[in-house]
Amino acid sequence: MMASSYNAKEEDGHNSGASNNGGAGVVKSKKPDNTAFKQQRLPAWQPILTAGTVLPAFFVIGLIFIPIGIGLFVSSNNIKEFEIDYTGVDINNPCYNCAKNFSWNSTTPCVCSVPFTLEQPFESNVFMYYGLSNFYQNHRRYVKSRDDSQLNGDQSALKNPSKECEPYRTSEGQPIAPCGAIANSLFNDTLELYHIDSNGTRNTIPLVKKGIAWWTDKHVKFRNPGGNNNLTVAFQGTSKPVNWRKPVYELDPSDPENNGFINEDFIVWMRTAALPTFRKLYRIIQKKSSTTPTLPSGKYLLEITYNYPVLSFDGRKRMILSTISWMGGKNPFLGIAYITVGSICFFLGVVLLIIHHKYDTRNNSPDIPN
Amino acid sequence: TTSASFPAIGGKKEKQRKKKPKENKTRTVHANILYDNAKGEENPNRNYANNKIKTTKYTVLSFLPKNLFEQFHRFANVYFVFIALLNFVPVVNAFQPELALAPVVFILSVTAIKDLWEDYRRHRSDQEINHMDCLVYSRAERRYVERYWKEVRVGDFIRLRCNEILPADVLLLSSSDPDRLCHIETATLDGETNLKQRQVVRSFFDLDCDFDPLKYNGIIECEKPNNDLNRFRGYIIHQSGRRDALYKENLLLRGCTIRNTEEAVGIVIYAGHETKAMLNNNGPRYKRSKLERQMNVHVFWCVIILLVMCLFAAVGHGLWMFQYGDKRPVFDVLSPEGTDLSPIMSAIYLFLTMIIVFQVLIPISLFVSIEIVKICQVYFIHQDMDLYDEETDSHLQCRALNITEDLGQMQYIFSDKTGTLTENKMVFRRCTVAGVEYSHDANARRLAMYQEMDSEEEDCTSHSGTLPRRDSVTSHQSARVVLRSQSTKSHRRTGSRAEAKRASILSKHTAFSSPMEKDITPDPQLLDKVNECSSQMDFMRFHSQPMSQLPSDLADIIDFFIALTICNTVVVSSPNQPRQKVKLTSTKSIQSNLLRVNKGSSSSSLITNRSSNRGCSSLLSSPSAESTLTKLDEEQPPRGLEHSFGPVPPCYNGKAWNLEDGELRYEAESPDEAALVYAARAYKCSLVGRLPDQVTVELPHLGKLSFELLHTLGFDSTRKRMSVVVRHPLTDQITVYTKGADSSGTTCANSLKIFILVSFIKIVSRTQNYLNLYAADGLRTLCIAKKILSKEQYACWLQHHLQAETAIQGREELLFDSALRLETNLQLLGATGIEDRLQDGVPETIASLRMAGLQIWVLTGDKQETAVNIAYACKLLDPEEEILTLNAFHSNFAPFEIYPSSSPSSSSHTTPFTVLRLGLVIDGRTLAYALDKSLEDKFLAVARSCRSVLCCRSTPLQKSMVVKLVRNKLKVMTLAIGDGANDVSMIQVADVGVGISGQEGMQAVMASDFALPRFRYLQKLLLVHGHWCYSRLANMILYFFYKNAVTLIFWYQFYCGFSGSAMIDQWYLIFFNLMFSAFPQLITGTLDKDVSAETLQQLPQLYVNGQNSEEYKPYMFWMNMIDAFYQSLVCFFIPYFAYADSDVDLFTWGTPITTLALFTILVHLGIETKTWTWMNWLSIAFSTALFFTVALCYNASCPTCYTPSNPYWTMQRLLQDPLFYLLCVITPVAALLPRYFYRACQGTLFPSPVQVGRQLDKLPTETRRNILSLSRVKAGSALSPKPPFLSLSKPSPKVMMLCVVCVCVCVCVCVCVCVRVCVCVCPVNPQNCVFVCEFLYGLNKRDITC
């Protein structure tokens, strides 16, 4: 179809016939131009892939990758991480009862405490995550089920949320704010951390709840309708999501900068996770002084207000404490991968070297035919 | 007679013409001016097409629907539109519906814009043509007025002036030429450069005054419009009831140019789209190449893979849903309606969703990209300097634009001989007259000298001014020849462009007239005889003795030369005024006046008299019955002498004749005619003028003789001869001169035996011997014969002939019979041998094509001996070869047997032919049996085992049947190359048809896919461009399949509950193939050169690569699929593990995956790219830059748009993340490691011949030349097409590839185990271990404890 750059006129010949009447001396030659491009003689680099030519590349890759890998591995290993599962599957788990007796509608919150011990002190800032497993936040219909305009404070979207939010769009005739399945399934466990010192007293560890979301999310993407003053009025005429205990303007009554749509826990939750096992940043434990570790080794108690059900879909809930490095959280994989790929390259380089010495010699001698 | 005067007709016209039953077979044309006043409905011509041409396909309104309709003929487009529309169904949609439409709309609109542009160009050229001016007679103004072409209607009278282009097919009614001729140049129609004569319709022949349209009262009945340029039949009915036949000689075709004629008037018969030129214009041809056929199979496989993947995902989703049972988890959202879907229903919906998500697997841009690449390839082939012929200022034309890659896969070449292998420049070599051979030794030497000079000049081009030897034997003429040829040669070889141009312009003016053909050294013996003979005749004429007293051998000689001179259709022109026919204007009128005075008393009317005077027509037409018959009755002894020996015309257009300087130019329709005329001129028998009714010949001593031309029976391929009937001026006898192919000529002559003396039989047999001798020398032979008719015989024949001519039905057959009746009982005069020289470089081309593994068959119409000798000359047959000759002896000879010409060892089918090197020669009659259903397999079996096959005496139909047979039965790719009309059918049948744009018109070129100026260009076209086109396209297609098969999303389905979710933003997903990764592959597909042109030509063996489809084998498709599978695994799982159990969100995770997939794909292309020009670098840089620019802009543009991905600031954040860069480095390396390693191993362990060729490219030129010359020797001696060093001890690449894949899989497993061990050994984080275990043991991790 594309190839029919064909002109009927040339065939019909009217043009050529008319132009040939003129003097024969001005006939334009059809000789093609002798340019490198038109004659397909552009200067070119022509690599030939043989054992001999490729060999250095393999060694170089090996030599670069292995140190990088070691570096990554070491820096990953320097990260301290502690994880504790508080789902309560096991009968010995303190949260077993909470997990068993759960229903979305229960009014009395179930609280359980999980003691744990940190063997090593956490020196720098500690990030506190909650982790969920087997929770498919990436399900196609789930991911779509939100209205970004509404979350951006758009008044019309607030009153008339997007169709994508169905079936969590309206409740009892009123539009849901925030609408959609993501918001509806907001993680609502409350975690508190206590350090138990040697004499058995519980010291509350201060948890910073701001600065856990992306700056752009907090300040650009998410906005309360009508600014941050008097959210109760702003959200008038809307209904809370079905699974929520309290409306959106009561998410954090203590801090108007962290309430409503710009509540950071909410924002973090709204950023749907990529994989069914994920963690989300919950709080930050800031380092107080350079001399004492943020979390010294010792006994701790995690107190959970158990609200969020996961057992129905066989999920797990975890609390994770972790320091981070320049490359993020603890993950030795990349280091190992670099080391492995580097070693394989090195190994293949050796193989190629052998091949090269055995077979590739004739390329250098001009007597190929013999 | 009744036609003496035309009654002036007013507006009233007989309308009571009865409706004939054959109305639908013919067209009736009335003059329009009769209906000027009447309403349009009454004009009987109103139903015929007007002259407005419209070659556009669309109008403004119809463009969109029509173009879309056309585009939807391509199945892929329908498929993609279907998928895009599927997105509008809410339950199954995967992307934003509007966005999903984007690629389809983009593809459709690119094609539509291209179509629109083309159509606009057509429209503009139509406009231009439609608004050209011409003179149309207006009844109202009673004069010719200027009108646009588009206003011309059928039935209009138009006046044409010199050098005007004909606006429509016009019946010639009047011409300012005294002979009532009109000359036209038909180069735009058929490419023939000579002028053609057209004749005024007979009834209007005799008008003395200007033609007055008002007086016209005829009705024309003619054929319906058809596309046969060489046929026009019909008749004109005058009011008197008289009918006159119309021939193609009366019709001027649209597009031709009027030449040499001041003014002509005609009536439009066919206009606009019904003209023959437009009906012949049927646009470019579409063929589907072999590669594309293979590709389509794989597209089909892709569809199957797609369906399997969708099914897998659907089942997976169903199971995933099922495991939750009634406990619906929070993340499993209800359908918008709030209804709960059963697992089965959602599986079905998901199936459709997955089809949308995986649509990239079917490469939407593949078809467009292929077309773009092909256009570029055609452009480069056009631009190749080596395929440009300076002599004719023409270069290769690609007429079929979409089969370039087929050029690289040819296996059989079917070639015509004359004009294709040979130059079709006929050179008179020798002749035999009356049984005596004249060997023309000097002439042979002269020709040999040309050849030497050719080669010499190739060696020392610098001093082309110095003269080579001057042979003492050669006459002064040949010395001049040397000089001349020197100059033209230098134009051809080394001369500047301007010089070459001048030479080519000169050569254009006269067809076929290189000095080599013109200057013939006469045989001294024969020259003496001619001189003697003519002086005797002069003497006898002077003494009024009857010519019959001349000794018979001398009479034969003079007759022989007269036959050579006049038995043709050569037109004489003078060179200083090219295209100006030498007119006998003054003489003519004087003569006719004289005659009129002489015969005024005896003739009844002026008109009969005039018509008797110029009663003959050229070619097939003839004088009207009554006038010719009257003429026969007339007594004309005084006239004869007076007419023919009238005083030498005082001036021919005021120019003196100077024969020695060769100022006459002969324009012949075929080169052998010209050769014979030039040969006769060397013996001082020169053709000096040709008019439709007379031929003027200048003979030594006798001066100018005018032969009255009574009839010309043109050459046709079934009769294989041509005849003229003339009245001999000296003897006043009606004489038939015939020349023709020897088989027909001698049989005719043989049938004469009964009447003729024994001595004559001797002549015939002797001549036959010489003919065989000539043929053995590779000469083309023609027999010359004559016959004297008595008046009665002639009258009798004429009667029948005229009947045949006026018949409308079956005229061709009748004319054929009539011609045969005339051409019997001929007296053999002699025979000529014409050499048709091989074109430059033919033997070398054939040798290298053969080294390239191509089977070359030559199919020719020539006789066996000639063909065999040409075959030896062009190295098609080798003296060392055994020649199998298949000749059938009897017409009822059903099973043909094979007999070897020399050795009895190969006398049966069972003999292993391959041991010997065989050549097969088969003639047309045997071919007819061989092509029979029952024998064709045997024939093919024999032919296959032969190295070369030569079919002689084959008809055009047989040629095409042979090609068809080989193509269908052997399932091979065939190429047919030819230059003449007789090759058209063969060219059309073959996979690739190549036309030589030579001298035999344009029919072959019109039918061909590629048109070459010379045969030797075939070498570069096939070996270089064919190879490149094929390997480029094959690699590009493979790459396309690979690229689209990197389906990262499929792996993701395991981690999103098979919900059809995509971690890659839909924008990236949709534009990935269309924009981000599109350019580099186009550049590589267009520019990549695996081996340099020089090496490809020096090592033709590399062509085998394409013949065996080495670049695109089914296993390669599957290997690429497996590679894509592996690469997608790597590209998915490295980021997966790198981000496992982190707080990464869906699209922040998907964007790095997109990026590194892009890098992987680009680097993959880099591995496959063989030559890196700056354009490759640029395109890759551009792609990368484009991706990041688009991503950054897109991610910064809108914080709330683009649901669901909502990528605001994602890329910006990623660019601050070191992990992103680390991933982008390691993943492409890990993904491409196997391929890179495999390529390296392949390059060393079992390099393909192409790779060896590339290595040769790298060597310094000196060593390379040594190696090549060595390999050439080896290849020449060895039977195998590959030289030994190219076929090293190499294991099968398939096996090796499998091994490498196994190694890769092992390595993968090792990596995984490594990871697992590492993770599990360091007990810091058992969670990681779980992930690894998950990967290793299954996808469900719930029951796993590490």
TrEMBL record, chain A:
Belongs to the CDC50/LEM3 family. Keywords: Cell membrane, Cytoplasmic vesicle, Disulfide bond, Glycoprotein, Golgi apparatus, Lipid transport, Membrane, Transmembrane, Transmembrane helix, Transport. The keyword Glycoprotein applies. InterPro entries: CDC50/LEM3_fam (IPR005045). This is Cell cycle control protein. It is found in: Apical cell membrane; Cytoplasmic vesicle, Secretory vesicle membrane; Golgi apparatus; Membrane. PANTHER family: CELL CYCLE CONTROL PROTEIN 50, CELL CYCLE CONTROL PROTEIN 50A. Pfam families: CDC50. One of its GO terms (biological process) is phospholipid translocation. One of its GO terms (cellular component) is endoplasmic reticulum. Residues 150-159 have a biased composition (Polar residues). Residues 1-25, 148-170 are annotated as: Disordered. It is a multi-pass membrane protein. The chain crosses the membrane at residues 48-74, 333-355.
From TrEMBL, chain B:
Residues 1005-1248 form the P-type ATPase C-terminal domain. Keywords: ATP-binding, Endoplasmic reticulum, Magnesium, Membrane, Metal-binding, Nucleotide-binding, Translocase, Transmembrane, Transmembrane helix. The active site is at D416 (4-aspartylphosphate intermediate). It catalyses: ATP + H2O + phospholipidSide 1 = ADP + phosphate + phospholipidSide 2; a beta-D-glucosyl-(1<->1')-N-acylsphing-4-enine(out) + ATP + H2O = a beta-D-glucosyl-(1<->1')-N-acylsphing-4-enine(in) + ADP + phosphate + H(+). It comes from Sander lucioperca. GO terms for molecular function: ATP binding; ATP hydrolysis activity; glycosylceramide flippase activity; magnesium ion binding. Mg(2+) binds at D416, T418, D979, D983. It is an enzyme of class 7 (translocase). Residues 474-488 have a biased composition (Polar residues). Residues 41-98 form the P-type ATPase N-terminal domain. ATP binds at D416, K417, T418, E673, F715, K739, R780, T860, G861, D862, R953, K959, N982, D983. One of its GO terms (cellular component) is plasma membrane. Its cofactor is Mg(2+). Residues 1-26, 454-503, 601-647 are annotated as: Disordered. Belongs to the cation transport ATPase (P-type) (TC 3.A.3) family. Type IV subfamily. CDD domains: P-type_ATPase_APLT_Dnf-like (cd02073). GO terms for biological process: phospholipid translocation. This is Phospholipid-transporting ATPase. The keyword Nucleotide-binding applies. Gene3D superfamilies: Calcium-transporting ATPase, cytoplasmic domain N, Calcium-transporting ATPase, cytoplasmic transduction domain A, HAD superfamily/HAD-like. InterPro entries: ATPase_P-typ_cyto_dom_N, ATPase_P-typ_P_site, ATPase_P-typ_TM_dom_sf, ATPase_P-typ_transduc_dom_A_sf, HAD-like_sf, HAD_sf, P-type_ATPase_IV, P-type_ATPase_N. Its EC number is 7.6.2.1. Residues 601-629 have a biased composition (Low complexity).
